[in-house]
Write a structure and sequence with these properties.
- By secondary structure, the protein is α+β, with helices and mostly antiparallel strands.
- It folds into 2 domains: 34 residues, no CATH class; 143 residues, Nucleoside Triphosphate Pyrophosphohydrolase, CATH 3.90.79.
- A hairpin with a 3-residue loop joins strand 1 and strand 2.
- It is elongated.
- The N and C termini lie far apart (52 Å).
Length: 180
């Protein structure tokens, strides 16, 4: 199967025919849609630069710090809220727990949805992100997967550069909730 830029197929994934104008198969009529991909992110808050007590709900008004990772794959050297793609057939909450464990070494439970945003920073691969507030359950902070550093930073003063503009928006909304 041949794929063009931005996840556009050049040939039909059903019958192999040419896709006219990059969208409709001239042979079987299959129509290709260009849609954003869903991604998830886990927000772990703390009242200081340390892991909160297991199961304790640190709500945004009480939180001063947030767990961030520094990326070593795409966007290497830039910081972000731990995040990633949802595997096909995977629940969004399960994907968030998996990404948190893979990138930070921590087991978390999902508390609630904090934000849902469209990500337009990569015009060829647009995504829709869901940021979940999480609670720490177990584990020790350690970078993994596509992160080479991980740590709690002040919500109002994240390190630069940030990998994704929408993380800046989410961090600003967390800081605003703290100010009340």
């Amino acid at each position: 199967m041949e794929v063009g830029t931005g996840f556009w197929f050049l040939h039909c994934p059903r019958c192999g025919g040419a896709l006219a104008a990059g969208q409709r198969c001239a042979v079987c009529g299959y129509r290709q849609y260009r849609s954003p991909v869903a991604v998830v992110a886990g927000i772990l808050l703390s009242s200081g630069p340390f892991v909160p007590p297991p199961g304790e709900a640190i709500e945004p008004p009480r939180a001063s710090h947030v767990l961030l990772v520094r990326r070593c794959g795409t966007h290497a050297g830039a910081w972000c809220i731990p995040c990633g793609y949802i595997d096909y057939g995977e629940d969004v909450r399960a994907a968030t727990r998996r990404e948190m464990r893979e990138e930070t070494g921590l087991a978390v439970e999902i508390a609630s949805v904090w934000a849902v945003r469209s990500n337009f920073h990569d015009p060829e691969n647009q995504t829709v992100g869901i940021w979940f507030l999480t609670r720490y359950l177990a584990g020790e902070v350690r970078p993994g997967d596509d992160a080479d550093r991980v740590g709690f930073v002040e919500i109002a003063r994240p390190p630069e550069p940030l990998a994704f503009p929408t993380d800046r928006e989410v961090l600003a909304s967390l800081a605003a909730a703290r100010r009340g």
